[in-house]
Structures are given as structure tokens and as C-alpha cells.
Amino acid sequence: MDEASFDKAARDELSQLEDAFSDIDPDLVEVSVSDGVLRLDLRDGTKIVINSHRAARQIWMAAIASAWHFDPGGDGRWRAGKSGEELHATLAKLLRERIGVEVAL
User: Which helix (H) or strand (E) holds 39?
Assistant: First the structure.
């Protein structure tokens, strides 16, 4: 995937993730976006940071002393190379486990 294609795919993915929180109470999940970085501050104090990493052609997510590196797949999903975890499912699981919130991702 060339740089321009990656930038568009990553930007679209981060925008989609941000939009998924539009109906979530900001007291549960505070969402902020700046320079291609999506930050989720959960009511329990957990911070989740999701950003695109152009050089690696990945979307990175960090939370609770863990990090994931998701690669774009031909099916439009982003999967962690080492574990096979999918970005949306991993984020949904974190939200469910940490604060009991279900988000349609």
C-alpha cells in the first residue's frame, strides 16, 4: 500500500472510530482528536490512544500498559500481526471490560 492510500485508509478508520462514540455519554468516554491521534478517556481513568503510524503503515493503539500494532487487511479490517486481533473487536473488549460500555464499532 502506498503512502497516500495508507493515509486515506487510516484517516477514514480513525474518523469511523470517532463517529462510533457520538452517542456515548462523554461522562463515560471523553473523546478527543488532534493531529491524527484519537484519545479516549474512560470514566475509570483508563486512557486509550489510537493513531496512525505512516512509516510502519499501521494503526497503533495503547492502553493499560499494552500496545497493539494493526495492519490494514484486504477486507478493510485492521489486524494485529502478532496476535491476529482485530482493531474494532479489541477496542470493544477494552471498553466492555473497563467500564461496561458496549459501542457499535
Answer: strand 37-42
Residues 6+ apart with CB under 8 A from 50: 14, 17, 37, 38, 39, 40, 59, 60, 61, 91
Helices and strands in the chain, H and E counts: 2, 6
Residue-wise pLDDT for 4-59, tens only, equals 999 999 999 999 999 999 999 999 999 999 988 999 999 999 999 999 999 999 99
Which secondary structure element, helix H or strand E, spans residue 9, and what is its range?
helix 3-20
How much is the pTM? Answer: 0.92
Enumerate the β-bridge partners of residue 59.
52, 70
